UniProtKB/TrEMBL annotation:
Regions that span the bilayer: none
Database matches in SUPFAM superfamilies: Acyl-CoA dehydrogenase C-terminal domain-like (SSF47203), Acyl-CoA dehydrogenase NM domain-like (SSF56645)
Protein name, UniProt field: Acyl-CoA dehydrogenase
CDD domains registered for this protein in UniProt: ACAD
UniProt domain Acyl-CoA oxidase/dehydrogenase middle: residue ranges: 127-220
Organism in which the protein naturally occurs: Micromonospora yangpuensis
InterPro entries noted in UniProt: Acyl-CoA_Oxase/DH_mid-dom, Acyl-CoA_Oxase/DH_mid-dom_sf, AcylCo_DH-like_C, AcylCo_DH/oxidase_C, AcylCoA_DH/oxidase_NM_dom_sf
Keyword flag Oxidoreductase: yes
């Protein structure tokens, strides 16, 4: 897609974002409202990235159908929507992260099963990696997939925590250990109505619309047909796909964080009319950094579209966007004076939402390690990351 079309796509997304702004506090108070908010005019089905074969009525830009099937298109649209409410963007039904894993690993039947389910009604999905005792470190993953002793039957047992949309999902991807060692982690497609599967929402402060959940799986029956990537070599299965998914989703998370940063800036400029000269300098600095970060996020998205195996720029974008969101929202509280979080409930929400991005998709320290490794291996090419 050319940059002109991306500019037009951004304008279309901006028009749709207004609807989300009016429901932001309602969803923040009660994340279970995500279902009812879908009836408030947002053409969400056109914005969640359904593939052409399952999407008879796509978004149109300059008369051309747009399926939001590239990272570049997603970051442009989702940043604009997040400028209204990042929690609502993450609360939308659709493929989200699990769609990337399925696209990487699934065979024809699995692809059809997954997309048919996701395209029917309002269907949420989940991506289950993080565990209460082991975090998102695959090396010590405790969730297991053990043979039942009958044909290709398997049993899935374990707990996943901090899983977005888990409690309202109908289908999702769970990462589990089938054998010891780095190649022993596999991805399985799980329907949430299977016996032994339960999911409960967790109490949270930031991005509450996402309804982070805990998944508990006790001997959930898994068939060979649920194993993603079983037709591939052991080096092209679970963790290979997870890494590529992180590399593709980090620019999206960066775009969401950037939307929150921009919303904080917009709120300050709208709420105060006079600024001291040092404050004017601060606002000018923010405006420059918002523009620079937007360029970096888009560059990271293009890089992920070219090669999802390389997450160097994605990590750089996530560091930048997350830091900017935290800095602008917390400084906005100071600029708007005592009581700012009471007087501006939307700002209170932005401060809480901004903090959640630090952990989502790996903390800043992990991104710095990725970035350093990429730099040492010469993967930054011509990109300039100051
Ligand atoms: C809003 C939100 C949505 C989420 N959605 C999902 C989801 O859908 N599915 C899912 O599975 N998980 C999800 N998570 C969980 C998230 O992916 C993990 O919490 C995140 O990756 C951090 O991993 P961890 O908990 O293992 O922490 P760790 O990576 O262990 O980090 C703990 C602390 O140690 C530091 N640290 C770790 N390693 C190093 C190192 N080598 N050097 C220096 N410091 C280090 C970190 O910076 C951090 O301060 C979500 C989390 C949030 C907040």
């Amino acid at each position: 897609m050319t940059s002109d079309l991306l500019t037009d796509l951004r304008a279309v997304a901006r028009e749709h974002a207004d609807g989300l702004r009016s429901t932001a506090l309602e969803l923040d108070r009660d994340p279970s409202r995500a279902v009812t908010l879908l009836d408030r005019g947002l053409p969400w089905r056109q914005l969640i990235g359904l593939p052409a074969a399952y999407n008879p009525d796509p978004l149109r830009v300059r008369g051309r159908p747009v399926y939001l099937d590239s990272c570049a298109q997603q970051v442009v649209v989702l940043e604009e929507l997040a400028r209204a409410d990042a929690g609502a963007v993450l609360a939308l039904p659709g493929p989200s992260m699990s769609g990337f894993v399925v696209t990487e690993l699934a065979d024809g039947d699995q692809l059809d099963r997954y997309w048919r389910t996701v395209a029917t009604g309002a269907t949420w999905t989940f991506f289950g990696m993080t565990e209460p005792a082991h975090g998102s470190d695959p090396g010590s993953m405790g969730t297991t997939l053990r043979p039942t002793g009958e044909a290709d039957g398997l049993l899935l047992t374990g707990v996943k925590r901090f899983v977005g949309n888990g409690a309202r999902a109908r289908i999702g991807v769970v990462f589990a250990r089938r054998h010891a060692g780095p190649l022993g982690v596999v991805a399985v497609l799980v329907d949430t109505d299977r016996p032994g599967f339960t999911a409960v929402p967790l109490p949270t402060l930031g991005l509450r619309g996402l309804q982070l959940s805990e998944l508990r799986m006790t001997e959930v029956p898994i068939a060979g047909a649920d194993l993603l990537g079983r037709h591939r070599s052991a080096t092209r299965q679970g963790m290979w796909a997870a890494t590529r998914t992180f590399n593709r989703y980090r620019p999206v998370v960066s775009g969401l964080a950037l939307g929150v940063a921009q919303a904080g800036y917009d709120l300050v400029v709208a709420a105060r009319h006079r600024f001291r000269s040092d404050e004017r300098h601060l606002l000018a600095d923010w405006a420059r950094r918002l523009t620079g970060t937007r360029a970096l996020v888009l560059a990271a998205a293009h890089a992920a579209d070219r090669d999802p195996g390389d997450g160097t720029l994605a990590s750089a974008a996530k560091i930048r966007a997350t830091r900017l969101a935290e800095e602008i929202t917390t400084s906005a509280v100071r600029l708007l004076g005592p009581g700012a979080r009471w007087e501006h409930p939307l700002l209170d929400k932005l401060v809480r939402d901004a903090r959640a991005f630090e952990f989502m998709e790996g903390t800043g320290n992990i991104q710095r390690l990725n970035l350093a490794q990429g730099y040492l291996q010469g993967r930054l090419g011509d990109a300039r990351v100051a």
